[in-house]
Amino acid sequence: MKAAITAAERGHEVILFEKENVLGGTLNYISHDCHKYQLKNFKNHLIDVVKRSKIDVRLGVEATPEMIDEIAPFALILAAGSSIIVPKIPGLLENGALSAKDIEEHPEKVGDKIVVIGGGLTGCETGLHFAEIGKNVVVLEMAATLQFRRTI
Question: Is 98 within 8 Å of 121 (Cβ atoms)?
Fold first, then answer.
């Protein structure tokens, strides 16, 4: 969104494709975390600026090579987002494991006892959030230490 805003402010005609039905990308999956209110506010600010601009926003549309060829843009900015890393543990998904994104979309699926696999930033922040709201949380990490670096 910031790249689209900057390009529009510089006088370019901008088309913003978003394959989801809402803007925000990965920032949409942090709103459950009370420590991330500044990021949530920033995301909402960017959405407001995009709405007030002359940016042609196309929600629910995944850009294809054919679409890009047809438009023939002067420049193309690819913001491909991120993907979820799923550990190769047999039966993990079949037995109801949830990703951080799943938890954000379906908080009702989270019980009182939680095991977080991965002690990186996302795992630690997810574990911290649920511990703070009274859940019994265990964070499992294969490295000798957690990889938690809070930068608030």
Answer: no
What Å distances lie between residue 117 and 2, 26, 50, 78, 121, CA to CA? 32, 19, 36, 30, 12
Residues 67, 10, single domain; the answer is yes
Collapsed DSSP state (helix, strand, coil) of residue 106: coil
Residue 107 domain-assigned (yes or no): yes
Which residue did the predictor score with more confidence, 49 or 36?
49
List of E strands, the chain: 15-18, 56-59, 113-117, 136-140
On whether the pTM is more than 0.70, the answer is yes
Residue 76 lies in a domain: no
Q: How many CB atoms lie within 10 A of CB 14?
A: 22
Which position has the token pair 């809070």?
Answer: 150
| Per-residue model confidence as pLDDT tens digits over 74-128 | 999 988 877 777 888 898 888 888 887 788 778 888 899 999 988 888 888 888 8
The count of structural domains within the chain is 2
Whether pLDDT at 10 is above 90: yes
